[in-house]
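Posting here for the record, re: flavin mononucleotide.
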Amino acid sequence: MPTTLIVLAHPDRRSFNGAWSDATEAAARAQEHTVLRSDLCQMGFDPVERAAHYADWPDATHFDPLKAQEGAADTATTPADVAAEVAKISQADRIILHFPLWWFAPPAILKGWFDRAFQHGALHDVDRRFDTGLFRGKRVLMCATTGSRAEESAHNGKEGDVRLLLWPTAYTLRYLGFDVLEPVVVHGVHGYHRGDRKTELTARLAATLAAQHNVIAGFDTHPLLTFNRDDDFDDQGQLRPDRPSYSPFIRHADTPGD
Ligand SMILES: Cc1cc2nc3c(=O)[nH]c(=O)nc-3n(C[C@H](O)[C@H](O)[C@H](O)COP(=O)(O)O)c2cc1C
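Prediction output follows.
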């Protein structure tokens, strides 16, 4: 059976993010997927990479996280919590991330999951990344909520363009070779609405939960984010002048806004 991994980064399973992840799970099960879950907060996943995770790390004066991860992969001494996540990521045919935007980025626990569970030596190395990434042909979807309104999260919005705020996360996934779907973002999610606004939010969130079945049903045809291919860059790792720029993060002119 195909397998979906759902990763939830929210401290409360009863939150909207929790309910949204449950809607994803129900939709995936309706497609007869095996569903794996990483509810990071509920698991107490430790997002901080450090020497204490590696009993075999030989040097008490220096900790090199990339080498520690690679050495653990080579010697089958990967920390148990990371090994469990690596197994889920490897088994998954697709991954769906559910998280709120916290300080213009995903919550730290999700970043820490990338830091630790995207284990160097196991899931990527210098020869297996970007176009040669291990997860080529597999898809990831980010489902995110913001407290800010859609207008404030637009390209000219005061809270910053949410598509840009999510780019570093998308590029992390692209680094491993994944195809990254256009994120699904629900705006204006917070508990301070009153009266009509609260009624409107409640209805909008209920509609989002109901619509998740269609999002998951359309997963394989959902539009993808576009990234540069490896050969768009020269030997110095710079974008060739004749190749397109798909994001202000990788652009031709060193001028803000170009
Ligand atoms: C620590 C923290 C930081 C936040 N930072 C942002 C932010 O940068 N941008 C934003 O739009 N909302 C921000 N919010 C609001 C959350 O995105 C919002 O509460 C969440 O999306 C609601 O989803 P939930 O009901 O599932 O918790 C922040 C909330 C917290 C707790």
